[in-house]
Fold:
Amino acid sequence: MILTTMFLSTLTPKFYVALTGTSSLISGLILIFEWWYFRKYGASFIEQVSLNHISPWIGGGDSGGDSTTNNGTNNTTTTATTQQTVPECKVWRNPLNLFRGSEYQRFYWATNKEPLTYYDMNLSAQDHQTFFTCEGDVGKAEYEIMQTAWRERNPVARVKAAKEALEKSPDCVPAYILLAEEEATTILEAEKILKQALKYAEANYRHSQQIQHQGNLMEVLHRRDTNVLIYIKRRLAMCARKLGKLKEAVKMFRDLAKEVPPIMNVLNIHENLIEALLEMQAYADVQAVLAKYDDISLPKSATICYTAALLKARAVADKFSPDIASKRGLTAAEMSAVEAIHRAVEFNPHVPKYLLEMKPLILPSEHVLKRGDSEAIAYSFFHLAHWKQVEGALNLLHCTWEGTFRMLPYPLERGHLFYPYSTCTECADRELLPAFHEVSVYPKKELPFFILFTAGLCSFTALLALLTHQYPEPMGIAAKAMLEGASMPFHFIMDKLEAILPSNLLQQLSRL
Structure:
């Protein structure tokens, strides 16, 4: 105690100024490095070193970080992680895309806001050129016109080009498709034009089917005619769905799902079928469709994952109470529903805010990015009504969806039931979605603890250095008081030891 007092009495205010200034400088340098590392890699350097290098030495490493948790989904998780190990940012055609003339254009007239981006429309133009034209059309004036019509930015110019193509050839089916999509201002008008196109498409299909084996060019023509026929039938089924002819729509979607060749599976017609069956409240049929398409070997989608969650929530949602569940625990059926919701939220975390109406919905884009905000909008736009039809389903979702994120401590680095969430979705969604929409971003890069800690430490030591420089005497007294207070437990223990242990033992220890 006497030595400590003597040491403190010899310290001058300059020492405290130098000490606090040095501490502030060191913590500031650490803060700058941490911030640079976080901006570049999205993680804390100190945290990474402690988790990956220090923790294994002391036995605290997360040996099971990439393994699945014991929640009854081990087989699904293991297979999913082996099958899908690389994040994917592929843009898909929206299976429920709206009609430009009768739906998107009406929105523009009402709000004077463009619902589609040029990037999205350009992707659609590429799709139309791929599906509706082929090498066999070279030299045909009407198809040459349609090749340029899809790329026109002005809708008036596109419609004018389609009418010009029909003047040259009244059986130019792609021209009818463009008019149905863009000139028709109601679904009834679009359906009428598509039915007219269907007659020519079926005639072209039958003709090319008979001569498809006469050479590669004939095969290409037949493939083109098949694509055109499937597209028209699908849009007619969607017209029937929009006009309330549900049984007719379901039958058409079922037939299409059987007719579609494997190369056209990207159309995801089963998602149209699921949505129509949900509107009919034919939940048993929906479950049968899910049993076929919610397979490990097939790519997932928000429609697949959230519909599976909705069906399981339907069994328990009407009687679910968070207060009662917290007291007695979850039943097996409730646990199954919660796990399905967690699975869906992990696949696409943007959907719940739209279903719970925490974010405003907009018209969906013509293309979507799986697991992205664009897919969440497309799903919620058509399926919000189905969640509302099931009593208590939205309440169950509201109580449980955020629990998913507690299961993913590091969502940027690892997944639980799916491969890790890709960070490339934000850029693609900003290209697909209109400028007036605030793009949902997940996971947001929150500042790690060590950056906040070093920032606080730097600020605190800088403040101490400033106060010590301005008021050296009072700060010196305060520092001595703090050091004396901090050393009091140590001196208390030493006094107790002197009272208990023999004096000669303490003398021997002091000599050592």
About this structure: Residues 13-41 form the longest helix (29 residues).
